[in-house]
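pipeline stage [seq->struct] | target=Putative proline/betaine transporter | organism=Propioniciclava flava | residues=472
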Amino acid sequence: MTANTATPAAPLNSPARVITASLVGTTIEFYDFYVYATAAVLVFPQLFFPSGNSTTALIASFAVFGAAMIARPIGAIVFGHLGDRRGRKTTLVISLLTMGIATFLIGLLPTYHTVGVLAPILLLALRLTQGFAIGGEWSGAALVATENAPKGRRAWYGTFPQLGAPLGFIIANGLFLIINYALPHPTDALLKSEAFLTWGWRIPFLFSAVMVIVGLWVRLKLVESEAFNAAEKRGAIRKLPLSDTFRLHWREVILGTFIMLATYVLFYLMTSFTLTYGTASQTAQPGGLGISYINFVLMQIIGVIFFGIFTLLSGPVADAIGRRRLLIWVTVVIIIFGISFPMWLSLRPDAMFTGALTQSFLIIGFTLMGVTFGPMGALLPELFPTNVRYTGSAIAYNVSSILGAALAPIIAVALWAQAGGSTVLVGVYLAAASVLTLISLILSRETKDTNYDASSAEDASLDGDALAGASR
């Protein structure tokens, strides 16, 4: 399509459609990821990595969990190319289907006791497929929200795809709890349920098919944003968005990657690592709090409610004072929070006191998570112009997942073991990652007033390069 082609104006997406499409999709994607994260602690060490050593099995399970993060940048490149070349809608539908199919198939996998080493290999393959799919999901959902947002409310609209993270967590872990109550077992320790280890753990994976159908129905009703359509009409769509992203916007990619680092490390420490630490007994792993699985997940869900609330609240604040200023302040607080880990996560003689401290720790951590995660839906896309926005924001977001999310649970468990059961080194790890984020924020620019219109001066200059390249 050339810049002179006459086409009718695309209908606008209503605010309700934009919010629903961005929220439903990311909720499903994060649900699928959390289902695996929970199973990585409860099920997979026993059923797919039986080594005779609980720590070794857990690390192996987390390694497969982290392997998906390596596939995410590949997904970011592929889906980013499709999103910047063919549009956001088609790309989001494909990523959702890919994620849903992979998650459903995990629920059908044979275990190590049935097919031996083939079981973890198949699990790894499907986990990589999950990572590949989510590599394209987040950025597309963020663009659907922010490219359709009213003027001055991009950060607010950008919090809705972010809200999929706490909602997905609550649905996934809530379903595990329902299964626990429904299956017979001698105590409230889910791991002692033979029915759960045999087939109960498969239900959340299979249930994802229902959620994917709902998500597809919503997303197929979307139309492309005015910003993308305008760029397409003017011939500004790039043939190789990846090349242009690294050639013209390499600095933004690097800064975006490290701006997300503290968010990723904090999130996976608050979910995967704390579940391991909180439910481990002193006899099995020194330093563990020995809280029952059910009680700890309920405590996490309470914390995640604060995560969701402050994700939404962060949007209007970021629209008012700027994304950069808000994130600088919350990153400083995260550094302090990391240094204070041992004060919160220590086994005390009074079990109620231990529980109260742990619950306070989870609420504070998830509150900080909401404040730092919420503005990312607007900030990362705003670093890039329309015709490379999908690719640029997706690469920054997902490369950061390797540095943060993929390594965080593994590093945390190793540091925990090295410190003899103390969480002091785990907290220092979070603080160090946050320092890198703080430096990146200081070096970055405020994006609050970035012009999202495809006819902006920055896009126009890129369009000239594109047209010149086409003429050559």
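stage status: PASS
auto-comment: The first helix runs from residue 15 to 42. The chain is about 75% helix and 0% strand.
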